[in-house]
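Human: If only I could read backbone structure tokens as easily as an amino acid sequence. Take your time, and here it is.
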Amino acid sequence: MFRKSFLLFLTVCSFQLLAAQDNPLKSFPKGSTPKEVGKRLADHFVGSRHDLYAGKWMHYASVCAWNGALDYALKTNDKKLIKQLENKFEPFFTYEKSLLPPMNHVDYNMFGSLALKLYQINKDERYKELGLKYADTQWEVPANAKAEEKAWANKGYSWQTRLWIDDMYMITVVQGEAYKVTGDKKYLDRAAKEMVMYLDELQRPNGLFYHAPDVPYYWARGDGWMAVGMPDLMRMMPEDHPDRPRIMEGYLKMMKSLKEHQQPSGMWNQLIDEPTFWAETSGTAMFAYAFIVGVQEGWLDAAEYAPAARKAWLAMIPFIDERNNVTEICIGTGKKNDKQYYYDRPRNPGDLHGQAPYLWCAAALLGK
């Protein structure tokens, strides 16, 4: 009897080992599974205070982490966590209403993505109404708009266009969630048209993106917004959408370059192409997410990119401290044409710029 049980145990272990080898994104050591890590970070977020702009209104990094925690909760069917995340939002309709961001900037308008994601869960019309206001005002030109803003609008783009690579997450996430909620193709077309223009204007020949046209440095988190925005948008797009081939071209070009710049440790550095710079966690998590989604959707060669994504995920885990704060996160960073400036940027444990993409990765690794 013992011999049969032992042989069965060995057989099961062998199958698990083969499964890990066949699909590196399906099996992880205890303590580093996406379910365990996601739970740690999501629970930590639920209990945290709002991250605010100068004490005034919700910061986009908090929205990103909130969206990630919701994605994780949905993947694990954690009803308690879903309810906690919903309860955390409810005061925005009453005594925390003053914390709602104004509808006049890409970083502020993306708040609508959270309301729309929650609406898809609870079907509460208040969430839909609020979220769509943020999506619609991104294209509704205000009376006091500047000439440059009106010029973008006249070309069919958002008046909030500024040609910062961050925008290709900030704009596409709220327009994408509006499309999911309404089924109205105008939201998808807006996001796609904007993405194509940003790719045409900003992507470098090597597939990466400068922090700004006048700042020739490949800052990891800046590039990370593009790396996440493209696959998230393409997941919503029908195969025959006219803008899809151009976005896919830009995505594949970027992924190839990122694969080449991944450090032996599995991480990416604060400046992607600077091997002597420090490993930065928010950018690494964003790039890992882009690899994971690409493999799952069949856009990236699994034999090549799945091991790279696994290596990144396992390298990321030790940067989570005992308080469930991700460490080595570059703080919010404006552009500056000075390489040393990027090396010297402070690192803020628990900064939601990093907590968020860790949650995105955990949710993505739990399957489509």
About this structure: Residues 2-22 form the longest helix (21 residues). The chain has one domain: 28-365. Residues 28-365 form a domain with the Glycosyltransferase fold (CATH 1.50.10.10). The longest strand covers residues 52-53.
